[in-house]
UniProtKB/TrEMBL annotation:
Belongs to the iron/ascorbate-dependent oxidoreductase family. Gene3D superfamilies: q2cbj1_9rhob like domain (2.60.120.620). This is Proline hydroxylase. Residues 122-239 form the Fe2OG dioxygenase domain. GO terms for molecular function: metal ion binding; oxidoreductase activity. It comes from Dyella jiangningensis. InterPro entries: DUF2086, Oxoglu/Fe-dep_dioxygenase_dom.
Amino acid sequence: MTNMPASLDRYLHDADWPAITRGLDTTGCALLPGLLTPEQCHSLAACYAQDRGFRSRVVMARHGFGRGEYKYFDYPLPALVTQLRSRLYPKLASVANAWHERLGIEARFPGNLDDFLARCHDAGQARPTPLLLRYGPDDYNCLHQDLYGEHVFPLQVAILLSEPGRDFEGGEFVLTEQRPRMQSRVEVVPLRQGDAVVFAVNHRPMQGARGAYRVAMRHGVSRLRNGQRYTLGIIFHDAL
Ligand SMILES: O=C(O)CCC(=O)C(=O)O
Ligand SMILES: [Fe+2]
């Protein structure tokens, strides 16, 4: 994999971060359309078949997580994954800090990923969390939250590496939001190949009459009707 592609640098520089922040604040998710090129998607998805470069493989059905499988990258991450993780982090850290402030959570996030990871590693959360997921016909991913220890960065990113309609059908990315004492609401996020969705890992603040309250978010993937679907997941906190 090559060094930081200029296109990615430009994308992150030119993106409308105030609009992305508004999306995150109002719905708990925001789209970064066309963050990766089809070629980048293809080469990341092709990594899945390799044995090297991963620390573990999870067959979802064995754990009741759904159907399909995923593999956690090992350190050192592929260059493109490192770049995405370290460049996206500072853009999202200010949203994360604003959310903690509104939720009355004490922890604040440093401005760069290395400082945040040092905090995770000091607490024993030292295993890398970026992952590739692979789904085939009838596979799905149950609603879940990617929590791996005490240290939680409240936003994460998923990038669709396959093209809906061409590579697979079904398999929609869904988010649910559970307000206290209310029934859950679902949001389907339409993604094309190369699109990234930024979303809340566990809680997000919602403005109420008497200040902000906590909404619990979960994410998952609906059943594939056919084909193959690959995703790159970028989680910022490391795992115990
Ligand atoms: O395959 C997907 O779109 C969901 C991936 C996921 O659960 C994650 O990135 O944490
Ligand atoms: Fe996930």
